Each structure stands twice: as structure tokens, then as C-alpha cells.
Amino acid sequence: MSNDYTAQIREQRDRREEFFASNPNSPVPADRFAGLSYYPVDPDYRFELRLREHDDVESLTVETTAGGQQEYLRWGEFRFDLAGEEQRLQAYRSDADEDRLWVPFRDDTNDEETYGAGRYLDLEPDSHRTGDRWVLDFNAAYNPTCAYNEAYECPLIPIENWLDLPVEAGEQDYPGDPVEPTHHG
User: For the whole model, what pTM was predicted?
Assistant: First the structure.
């Protein structure tokens, strides 16, 4: 991996930081934003993989942080070696017409160094796919919005995407306190 790769990841992180710090749609008010924290960029956490699409795409109901439910399609599986062992993560779609893949995961850093409920990867076909291979890059892993503001409802990580090892890449736990929801009576 080149310095261009590291610069690209840092640029993505800078854009995310800028959004949180100054965008009116940020989940954290600018005066309460404590910055974002990341692991150093590590090219060993970047994989170019074939998605093993499921012959029978099943619907999966995912619980949310607010006690609700969201429906996803269990679209395919990524297999990769990490820490000398084969790992598997399921990739989901919101609907069959969507090309974007959602790859949520939990790992052994949750509750210690990263957000307790897990992190997400979004794979867009224009930027994460070349031919039949997808880029699964844990350096781009991010926290869901509910990590910053409890008013947001976020899907929880399906148990099939819980990894039994640490993934020391991507975004770490938010260093500030999450914004608590305000109720207007």
C-alpha cells in the first residue's frame, strides 16, 4: 500500500470530522463536539474480496437501539483471513434493487476501545467494487449515529457478524458523552 492510500483514508476521516464539527445535520451540536478518534491506518485491514452471493436471499429482522426493528436482505458473505484464521461477515441490502452493501460487525474491541454496540462498513459499488471484487476496508469502519446521540435509532449487529478477535482499525469510541435525547412536552 502506498502513501496515497493512507492519505485517502485520512481525507475521508477529515471529511467526517468536518461534518460532525460544523454541519447543521451533525448528530452532535458544534459546542459539544469532542472530536473523533481513530486507530492508525493499517493496510493489513484492507481486503479485496469476492462476495459469495447467497442462492436464496433471506429477509432478516434486525433489532434497533430504540427497541424497534428493521428489515434487511442477507445478500452474501465475505470470507477473509485475519489473525491467521478465516473470518466470515454477512453483507446486507435494504432492498433487492439497491447495489450498496451494509456490513456491520462487532469484535473484541467493543466496550473497551470502540463503540459497545459495534461498527459499520458501507460498500458503494462505484468506489468499493472492481469487477467481481469488493474492497472490505476496516480502516473505514465507523460508529453509528446513536454512538453520538441517543435520539437516533440504529440497527444492532446480527450475531452472525460478531467476530471473536479484535479489529484494531477504523473509528474508535467517541471521546465525548453522547447527546441525550430531549423530550418536548
Answer: 0.93
